[in-house]
Amino acid sequence: MFIVDTDVHNYWSSAEVLLPYLEPYWRDFLVRGEKPGPAGSFPHGHRPWLHPEGFSRHDIRPQTEEDNYLIMKEKHLDLYDIDVAILTADEPLEASTLANYHYANALVKAYNDYMIDWWLPKDRRFKGSIIISPTDPHGAAAEIRRLGGHKDIVQVLASHGSQRPYGDPFYHPIFEACAEVGLPFAIHFGGQGGVNHNAIASGPTTYYWETHALLSQPAMTHVVSMISNGVFEKYPDLYFVVIECGVSWVPSLMWRLDANFKALRKETPWLKMLPSDYCRRNIRFSTQPLEQPQNVKHLWETLEHMDGQNTLLFASDYPHWDFDAPTNIHIPPAWRDKVMGLNALEVYKRIEAPAASARVA
Amino acid sequence: MTANAAAVPVRGRTFACKVNEVAIGQPRIVAFGRIGIGIFQLDDGYAALLNICPHRAGRLCEGPVCGTTRPTDRAEFVYERAGEIVRCAWHGWEFEIRSGKCLVDDRLKARTFPVEVVGDDLYLELGR
After folding, report:
1. Which domain holds residue B52?
2. Is the ipTM, as predicted for this complex, more than 0.90?
3. Of A13, A97, A142, B19, whose CB has the highest number of CB atoms within 10 Å?
């Protein structure tokens, strides 16, 4: 089966891998400047919830920088016969939490160059994401235009933690750049600290698992905001990919949105379709962490209401603690070919389609 | 994982490893053909678990060996059963090393294998 894993975290052992890619002015920040931990930690405003066991799977224990790739290859790419792995970075997403957006821009720019230089050439299965810091939309747009033409770059990626809902016109320069270079805009769970103080509605929760279960909250806000602000009328071909934010909440939100829109469409006259129509046309959701009800049929029925067969993209979240293995993901068997790989081809146009024979096999 | 080249069954038992290859808190994963089994040393002996988690097939025995908190009625954190629990390396579900019982789901049990000490050698009963 053709498998595109849309959420593979390319770790580093030390953020100092960025030093050769930083301009001298910013290199001093990373070498001599204050950091949130010891040398090698990545500058960011940390979230107030600390995972009590650490983020990573305990069987992934890199000793060297090279191990980060070698272990991924052995325990994930080769083991599950993954055809395409979309690299989604890790700590660089947290640049969005820094108040100094110039520094944030410098860090993500260095990461993007490091990723293109160090990760992409290692494995033909790798595709990259341009990480942006949304705190400076014009800076982000410049970064998208700088690298957007690279043949192995398949999306633009920001943290789901942000200062405002992403449909806010403040962010539209980002989407304009995405549309211009022909890349989807994706968000991934993260960036829940520092200047992104709205990570949880009603105020901060107490425990890590409690907070993690609410990872859909900001995603709901972003999905609604992108639709209502007319981003998909302005950029009709733009795909918005929601990664690691859960999926089963989507149908109920669409029911509510459609009902409200029918009554109050006069507020947003630029919308030409029902909210759920935009969702189906322009928004895609990664599966992990797929909800796990006692009776899986309850999940499958829910996913039918969001046309899951066509709107879901498989993701593993390797190597995190809530990892979903491709062999153990509970989706309807009839959807498997599409969700595991073929749907991704519609969104990520730069991924080569498998040969016809491979498709059948 | 250590490949067990000398996996020769002796009267229903199969050699696993030497006793000095396992330590308290440091299980050894031994390969028997395509399956891996984690051999654990406990205060009062040895135990063995299949290295496949019954939750979602993760690498059960490669997670931390630790204790856990006793269920309480208030915000009191009573740490107990130190060294008797393994947390699956993937998703962190807790299992009793001796019995293979899953702490959060009665329906789940990791597969266990009897361990026999013969001199300096540890043998497993793999049959069943």
Report:
1. 2-125
2. no
3. A97
